[in-house]
Each structure stands twice: as structure tokens, then as C-alpha cells.
Amino acid sequence: MSEGVFTERASGRVTHSLLRLGTAMRSQAWEWAESVGLTPTQGEILMLLMQRKAPLRLGEIARETALTAATTSDAVSTLEAKGLIEKRRALDDGRALAVRLTARGRTAAKRAQQWPEFLNSAVGKLADDEQAVFYRTLLKMIRHLEVQGDMPAHRMCMTCCHLVTSKNPKKTPHRCTAFGQDIGDINLRLDCERHELADLPTQKKIWKIFAQQT
């Protein structure tokens, strides 16, 4: 056997594994979407509107989903034609349009949330400590991609002024002052409705502490 078989860098193996997961997710997304007469993009927009619980402008949807303005406009127009969303004048600017779910749209959005269940089932096979480590790792990767400009910023706990970060969360949990609750690593949110962006020095302090934890 060639000596080079096992010499691939660990980062390369991780990347390849993520690409394979991406392939499975894309396949499942299309299979689900076709079964309900939507596209994955349309389903993603519905889920975003349901998560935000408030009307969003087209520009906000494009930014949050990393879609082009043209793709966003086409998807929104199709969803409007299906009666799943409706356009209204933005409350803060009567010249701008905002998009919100209709009653049918909320039902469709709830169904759209079910398609990743195959992945949720696989994650559920991991032990609790494995899930916690995996989630911490994903948060770090997502943050790195955000900083690089390769992914839209999320309303995550790790950039929020309400988070009091623990240097040793296994012994002393983090603290969310917005909800008044102690939280462990696995409870850190990637998208929170009470998120308020911390100033840059505070963000750097939080991430420095978070990166040093094991």
C-alpha cells in the first residue's frame, strides 16, 4: 500500500466530510421541496420569516440567505403568487416594502422546518458530550466564516452584549442577562430574537475566552 494513503491533512478530511454532508442535505432538501411544490430557496425564505417573527425587506432576506437580489425577488414573487407571503409597506419607511407570512405561509413554514429531521436523527445518535463539542466547533467555524465575509452574520450569543461568558462552563455556566438564565455551551443560540450586538472589544473578549475553552 502506498505510504501516501493516510498522509492527507486533517483539515482536508474534515472538509471532504462536510462536503459529503452538504450533498446529502441538498438532496434531501430538493426531495422534500418537490413533494410540497416548493424549491429549497423558497422553503428557506419561509423558515427565515417564521424565525424572525416580523416582516423583512427584500434586502434583509437576500442578506440573511446569502442570495442575490434577483433570486430573492423571483422567489418572493413566486411565494406571493402561491399565497404564502404578502407584501406590506414597511412601518419605518412607507416607500419600502416588507414581506410577511400569511396563515398558509406559516403552515408551510412549519412543514419546511421538518425536512432536516434526517440530519437531526443522525446527530441524536451522538452522546451528549459529543454533541456539545460538535456544536462548539460549529459555532467557531461559523464565526470564522462570518469574519471572512463568506457567511452572513448571525444573531448568535457569542456576539451579544447580554452574554456573560464563563471561562469554565463545565463548572460555572455562561449567563444570559436578557433571559436571566444560566446556560451551557449546548444552549448557546445561533439566532436569538433578543440579540443585541456587543461592541467590538466585548466581542473580541468573548471570543478569546470561548476559543481557549476545551
Descriptive overview:
- The structure is a single chain.
- The chain is mainly alpha-helical.
- 52% of the residues lie in helices and 12% in strands.
- It has two domains: 11-112, Winged helix-like DNA-binding domain superfamily/Winged helix DNA-binding domain (Arc Repressor Mutant, subunit A); 127-212, no CATH class.
- It contains eight helices and six strands; from the N terminus they run ααβααββαααβββα.
- A hairpin with a 2-residue loop joins strand 2 and strand 3 (93-101).
- The longest helix has 26 residues, at 10-35.
- The protein is globular.
- The mean pLDDT is 87.
Biggest sheet statistics: 3 strands, antiparallel
Low-confidence stretches: none
**The first-level CATH class name of the largest domain:** Mainly Alpha
Return the average pLDDT rounded to an integer: 87
Number of helices: 8
**Count of discrete structural domains:** 2
End-to-end CA span: 36 Å
Lateral arrangement of strands in the main beta sheet? 1-3-2
**CATH superfamily of the largest domain, called what?**
Winged helix-like DNA-binding domain superfamily/Winged helix DNA-binding domain
In CATH, the topology of the largest domain is named: Arc Repressor Mutant, subunit A
Number of strands: 6
Structural class by secondary-structure content: mainly alpha
Binned strand content: 5-15%
Our Rg estimate from Cα atoms comes to 20 Å
CATH architecture of the largest domain: Orthogonal Bundle
Helix content: 40-55%
Q: Write the element-wise H/E pattern from the N-terminal end onward.
A: HHEHHEEHHHEEEH
Q: What shape does the CA trace take?
A: globular
